[in-house]
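Entry for the shared binder. Reason: the reviewer on the internal report wants the predicted structure included alongside the sequence.
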Amino acid sequence: MAERTGFEPAIVLLPYTLSKRAPSTTRPPLRTLITILYGRLYKTRHTKGCRNASIAPIIEAMVKKHTKPTVIKLKKLKKRYGIGNAEHYALDGVDLVIEKGEFIAVMGPSGCGKTTLLNILGLLDRPTDGDYLLDGKRVEELSTTKHARIRSQQIGFVFQNFNLIPRISVIENVALPLTYTGMRKIKRLKEASRVLKNFHLQEREYYMPGQLSGGQSQRVAIARALVNNPSIILADEPTGNLDSQASHIVMEELSDLHRRGNTIVMVTHNPKLTTYASRVIHMLDGKIASDTKIAVKDESRMEKIPFGLGRRVSS
């Protein structure tokens, strides 16, 4: 038998061709293996030469497929309030990396810095020290105008108290963020109507906020957050003022958004809501006490359905 030379990864990759989820107890994770193989390939191609150099694009594609881009990166982030004896750090050296498409639940006791973190992520507040990188760009180097543009186009906010304007109708509330994009009124209302239809609220487009239930008001608030098609959704206690049934409906909507590729960061006191998340962060005294990733359920049998209808298993 001829001696094998060069880089021939097919033998190593063979056990992984049937399943992407190799047991960690018997084999290294696929992503780790791909990284190792890519490193060996690079070394071989640049030192000894490689007769299988044509495999490089395949390995590069595999690495890219299994590596999600970083959306948010925090380095030693601090937020200080007060001076002298009244000085207090709401955030005290937070390091955090958020990848595209993650659903993160942030938990912790009152005063631990959850809302402060969310406000800084949403560019509603500025850190005292540390770095905040959004899509690889240092936020502190961006102008106030650029901050406003990012909030308008890239980030959607969902608040515990809904923050709907009581003197204008539901459809006008949802269309409000589009006002700052320069879109004409008729087009704004059409777009708002389309989003409300996804939440099955088209029959209440011209209701006033005071005529809605708590669950309906929160769904309107989520619709308003989505009308600009943001890639990041920040939710501060989205079910805090809702009963269990309304909370379930709202969380199903957020879960559906997550399955569609949106990055979601949700602050909550309710441990039951962490079942919807792919990652759970516990904060204490302005620091991250624990950071746990939750295994995502296999949704290969989940049927793609229109937005807002929940999900069901295909036969």
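Summary line for the report: The first helix runs from residue 10 to 13.
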